[in-house]
Amino acid sequence: MPSFVWDSAQNKLVPKEEYQTPDRGGAAVHGDIESFVSPIDGTVIDDRGKLRRHNAKHGVTDSRDYGKDYLDNAQKKREADMRGTTREAKRERVQLIDQTLRQFGR
Question: Which residues are CB-contacts of 47 (< 8 A; sequence separation ≥ 6)?
């Protein structure tokens, strides 16, 4: 039975024998970061190594480490937590009702 692979360049399935992996290009090169003063301890951060060590030392992270949808999803989760519409909140309510019914004999 022949095997097929999805070719995103052609936007279709092609026989595995005919598939050619796309050229991924060269290595990614990132420039230097602009130096800034840490709001945590006041040290000057002027390269990626210092930033990495600083973040590890203080247990913090850069907001660029998160995807573009992270903040939107976090806000939706927080709102659901505040409204009590999460699965955990619903489960807690059901358990509390069951416990109360058992305790008072209904």
Answer: 32, 33
